[in-house]
Amino acid sequence: MRIISLNYHDVVTPGDPEPTGRSVPGAWRYNLERDEFLRHLTAIAEARGTNPVAALDIAEAPHKPWPLLLTFDDGGVSAYKCIGDLLERFGWRGNFFVSTNYIGTPGFVSSDQIRDLRKRGHVVGSHSCSHPLRIGHCAWPQLVDEWTRSRAVLGDILGMEIHIASVPGGDFAPQVAEAAAQAGITTLFTSEPTGESRHAFGLTLLGRFTAQKGTNAQTAAALAAGEWLSCVRQAIVWNAKKVSKRVGGEHYLQLRRILLRHGNDVRWGDQNG
Question: Which position has the higher pLDDT, 65 or 124?
Fold first, then answer.
């Protein structure tokens, strides 16, 4: 089954004194300004002609054209203060993935805000507990714990079973999916830019095309429409980075620290998250 998913993070409103989302170096690359995000939604609406769907409704979605999902990682407070409202202006619903260790902390959604988003028809799923940036390098016990505890926290808040999640940091490995399945996840979103769903360990894996600061509205609309060239371009860049990370190993991380100007205070998944 072909499913197109676009992945966003936070949407910032100029002049708003409250931060939103993760403040680690480099996170700004994934934050769109409010007007920029609104242009994306407008262009997507014009290109698609059909509404994006919630992850819980994939099976019932019309398949011609293929379903489109809009996902939002991390659980920044802009999900409640901005993104949800803008989606609803179009009659759409989003899929928000929350790192549960940060619920209620500055810049992140609170338990009440999570409940309100769900009441309004948006989907809320797990984005692990601590958001390890190299989750694919985590030890097995940590992987199982990240998924199990995050599911439990969100389940207690919403009074429902949580079976949908997304992988933090884009660092996917088979054991990440296996641990998620063991913890009770049935649908797992990765950062691989593909529209082809696949199955492993009893769960469904869905890729996503990522929009970040500087992604223009026309590109977002082309990705949402499944336009071949735009999808292939992102896949080529993503796979090149994947190879660089694998080949470069620790040297890649050192270069990343230099480019993003952060030190060892930024923890990685293979360093206890």
Answer: 124
Categorize the per-residue pLDDT at 269 as very low, low, confident or very high, splitting at 50, 70 and 90: very low
pTM for the model stands at: 0.89
- Upper half-sphere CA count for residue 155 (Cβ side, 13 Å): 15
Count of domains for the chain: 1
CA-angle at 144, arms to 175 and 256, nearest 5°:
60
**What pLDDT, in 10s, does the model give residues 109-160?**
999 999 999 999 999 999 999 999 889 999 999 999 999 999 999 999 999 9
State which residues form the domain around 149: 4-271
| Three-state SS at 130 | coil
* Alpha carbon of residue 17 to chain centroid: 24
88: domain CATH number? 3.20.20.370
Record the tokens describing residue 245, joined without a space.
């990370």
> What distances in angstroms separate CA 9 from CA 37, 86, 129, 227, one per listed residue?
11, 14, 17, 22
CB of 78 closer than 8 Å to CB of 20: yes
Distances (CA, A) of 140 to 174, 178, 202, 246: 11, 10, 18, 20
